[in-house]
Specification:
about 325 residues, seven-stranded mixed sheet, four-stranded antiparallel sheet
């Protein structure tokens, strides 16, 4: 089925109120495009390996919405234009030009799967749940991953850097905490490397469902991996639920701007002598993270690189 797509040009000043107006008119789902710089809170709530590059804000915003073919688009557009005209008396709504086009009905949740295929990280085969393991790979360490709407396939350099460092330090008694666990890939691989127990935290509620689904397909029981939703940086309840000084490894594959406030907090979850593995660090942010790690009283053990990405590994002082 083809949908009618409408792209409304307005201003960043008015985008929120215009978006609310569209929803009040019964339009469900509005896409907003602008160049407003990300706030610190925005960055903390992002679950991506790569921080999107943004241009300088030019004050222009585009709001896109979709109507089914049977909907009375003339009436809806007339209502939209009437509301915009009224708004113009108290807010700069800009040009309010509306472009019309058609788009196919696409399964956006699953469409990305055509680009995700099995691959290796060293001798580890990472394979999506919809592909089969080839006979010649049956003797390999295999992990099945379907990130769903959470993040983390293992394809990005930052994730691979973390995987290698976790493997280097994990033992059969290791308890690991993964901050920003996404699909659960790091915690599950730690268990496959021989760790005793994994805990993951994430801000995205989708992380629990994604991790539990991946655990099931990998034969990992929920008594070996616990996932919690919350911001460990400033949520005392999550900090206490996760526990203090009870992890041999804490991993955080996030962003440098989040690692800086995270580090002095999460060191309290580490056991004395525990290992702190951080990544998601673009190369020009390396010193920023190293300084934050040292300021928290940790000893930097290793700095590893892949492409333009950096992983900093440190140790908490023994008691």
């Amino acid at each position: 089925m083809k949908w009618n797509k409408f792209r409304l040009k307005t201003t960043t000043e008015a985008e929120d109120i215009v978006s609310s107006m569209l929803m009040e008119l019964g339009i469900q789902g509005v896409e907003i495009e602008d160049k407003i710089p990300l706030t610190r809170q925005d960055k903390e709530q992002m679950f991506v390996d790569i921080l999107p590059e943004t241009e300088e804000d030019d004050g222009v915003a585009y709001l896109s919405f979709y109507l089914e073919p049977e909907e009375d688009k003339d009436k809806i557009l007339s209502d939209v234009r009437r509301e915009l005209k009224e708004m113009a008396s108290y807010v700069n709504v800009g040009e309010c030009l509306i472009e019309e086009s058609q788009t196919e009905d696409v399964d956006w949740v699953n469409n990305w799967k055509q680009y995700f295929h099995q691959f290796y990280v060293d001798d580890i085969l990472i394979i999506p749940s919809w592909e089969d393991v080839k006979p010649e790979d049956n003797d390999k360490l295999v992990i099945h991953i379907d990130p769903g709407t959470a993040f983390g396939t293992g394809m990005h350099e930052t994730t691979q850097l973390c995987i290698r460092q976790i493997r280097k330090y994990v033992t059969e008694s290791t308890r690991i905490l993964d901050v920003g666990c996404g699909s659960g890939i790091l915690g599950m691989l730690a268990l496959k490397f021989g760790a005793a127990y994994s805990v993951g935290t994430d801000l995205d509620p989708c992380a629990i469902e994604a991790t539990h689904e991946n655990m099931e397909v990998n034969g990992i029981s929920q008594d070996r991996y616990e996932v919690m939703i919350g911001n460990i940086i400033d949520d005392k309840e999550i900090q206490e639920k996760v526990g203090y000084e009870c992890y041999d490894i804490v991993a955080a594959n996030i962003l440098a701007d989040v690692l800086v406030p995270l580090t002095p907090v999460v060191i309290h979850q580490l056991k004395p002598g525990g290992i702190y593995i951080t990544s998601g660090i673009i190369d020009d942010k390396e010193q920023t993270v190293v300084d934050a790690v040292k300021a928290a009283g940790l000893e930097v053990l290793d700095v590893t690189y892949q492409g333009e990405w950096v992983c900093v590994t440190a140790r908490k002082q023994s008691a």
